[in-house]
Amino acid sequence: MIIKRDRVGIIRDILQIIKEKGNRINPTGIMYKANLSHKMLIEYLNETITKGFIAEEIDKNKKKTYSLTPRGYKFLDDYETIRKFFDSYGLN
Fold it and tell me: For labeling, which of 10, 14, 15, 35 is most exposed (least CB within 10 Å)?
């Protein structure tokens, strides 16, 4: 059975991918690892930037990379706490 990810799950996946890549990754890397279309990637990147979870950086060659902010790290920690809570009650 295929389980569809919800919006919060996709945001969590994006943040986790950035974290696992040493806190710096280009948009194409996020798109492939999170299994998102380009359109969806742009929507989620804009949302996570607006919410203060990630920061966009542009280098001298005009290449974009993304990194987690302290708020992004806190989101991941809180998400894990909530996931463990649900798991402890068999609500996963």
Answer: 35
pTM more than 0.85: yes
Beta strand spans in the chain (E): 54-58, 64-68
Q: What gap in Å lies between CA 75 and CA 58, rounded to an integer?
A: 24
From the list 89, 82, 65, the residue with the least C-alpha distance to 9 is 82
Give the type of residue at 73: Y
**Which two structure tokens, joined as six digits, stand for 75?**
């989101």
Greatest Cα-to-Cα distance within the chain, rounded to the nearest angstrom: 50
Please write the tens of the pLDDT for every residue from 20-44. Answer: 999 999 999 999 999 999 999 999 9
- Provide the residue ranges of all domains of the chain, joining segments of one domain with +: 7-88
At position 42, the amino acid (one-letter code) is I
